Amino acid sequence: MSNIVLTADRATLSHYRHNLYLGFLSCLPDRLCPEYIYKTIVPAVEPGLGGTVKLPHLSLRAVEAACFHAGFKSEDITILHPDALESKITTDAKIVGISVHDPLGYGPATTTWSTIFKGIPFNRIYFLRLMDRVRALKRKHGFKVVVGGPGDWQLASPATLDEIGIDFLVLGEAEIAGPKLFGAILAGRPPDDRLVKDRPPAAQEIPPVLGPSAHHLVEITRGCGRGCDYCGPDTSGNFRSLPLDKILSDVRTHIGHGIRDVTFHSDDSLRYGSNSLLADKDALLGLFAKAFEAGAGRVTITHASLVNIATQPDVVRALTKLLNAHGMDFFGCQPGLETGSARLIGRHMKGKVYPRDPKDWQEVIIQALTVMKAHHWYAICTLICGLPEEDAEDVAATTALIRRLGNFEALFIPLFFAPTGLTRLHDRERFVADAMLKEHWELMLACWDHNFKHLYNLYSRVARDDGPAFKALIRSLIVLLEGWVRIRRGYVLRKAEKTRRR
């Protein structure tokens, strides 16, 4: 066995039926969804040879690549399936590294579901179960436990590290900090500080991955730079476009494993290659063209900014033409709509609407969705409920906006504010269901009234690998959920009004 073992819990490592957007299912609480149903809908990731993982998520691939690039040998590092820990870990293991996304269930989506419906979210359940097993193995074999990943902020206190059994927590990006820490542990000189942080890597210091990842993600940028007060990617480091050679190497790695459809991962995909907050059309089109030349079949993206779509429709038009030429007749992304309040935009996220003015935000959204509709792009827009200083008028403005958007085939997902990472709002209280105003409930219902009209159609476009039986199950669950919402609507609003009067 390798002396460095990398792994994650079952919820984090699921492939979610190869549907990136179904990753939200790990946020469900056990009170809403019994575990046997969760396991049916969300199968565990497949194990590979020797207990490895066929398609680990991108964070594990990034750490593996960083270690290899830093001089570790490939046999020194194993990405191990969590079910194989007891059978494969021996005294040879000196480090067990665990990647976390939302380990305690304090993220926005999990907070929304778990505080409305109560119960324990599955991402927390499976992380704590994994750590119970890791502690038992540590007592037997004596390795060090190192944890890191996007959910590191939830664990960043000595008391939490002691309770869960973590020796070191890597904060932020790991390409520099991870190999340094691993090398120090293996040399018998671990640092005194258990919270480990180093500078973010430059774009040229992020090496190509060694194998394919879950959801076939290929990273194309890091950071953001728009300056939103609540946003982790904005504080993680400057916006960096990764070198084209690195990206194409990752694309070819997936193709070499029989995977031709890839997803470009970025917090602002249309800005690839840009030195500003606007899109660089030539750099963006060049990236996609080179990926297709390398043998990619479908190339999709994760996130994009509505303001770029609204103010640079020529970029969307040109990219759509290129995608259509390679057989792609629809496209989608996840933009942050966040709020309909110009006041909150100006207070917390002026950069989100640049080069437009915060007062124009609602019109920017409508213009962007109009451009997307014309080119068969589909948006899954997230909103934030409970931003600091939000009041009833701000929420009502967002609800009015959602009702204006009724003709757009998009999803609007309201999520609760969570003070993540090292953001400028890290010391604020997270928003929970007990703090909801009646206006928040009205917003929630307006979003889901809209979503129920489009949810199955959008799901069916991306669920190409799901069989008829599973699609029928999803359709039935959507119908049941819609019926439940309609039945409970009056009760929820009356209860919210009573709560408000107290």
* Helicity range: 40-55%
The overall pLDDT average reads 92
Q: How does the helix and strand content classify structurally?
A: alpha/beta
Tell me the total number of β-strands.
15
**What's the oligomerization state?**
single chain
How would you describe this structure in keywords?
about 500 residues, alpha/beta, Rossmann fold, Transcription Regulator spoIIAA, 2 domains, six-stranded parallel beta sheet, four-stranded parallel beta sheet, about 45% helix
Describe this structure in words.
The protein has 502 residues and is an alpha/beta fold. It has 18 helices and 15 strands. The chain has helices at residues 10-13, 35-41, 58-69, 85-88, 108-117, 122-141, 158-164, 177-186, 232-236, 244-256, 281-293, 306-311, 313-325, 342-348, 361-374, 392-404, 438-462, 468-501; strands at residues 4-7, 77-79, 95-99, 144-148, 168-170, 195-196, 217-219, 221-222, 240-241, 262-265, 299-301, 331-333, 336-338, 377-385, 411-416. The protein has a six-stranded parallel β-sheet with strand order 2-1-3-4-5-6, covered by helices on one side. Helix 7 links the parallel strand 4 and strand 5 (168-170). Helix 16 (392-404) packs parallel to helix 17. The radius of gyration is 22 Å and the shape is globular. The mean pLDDT is 92.
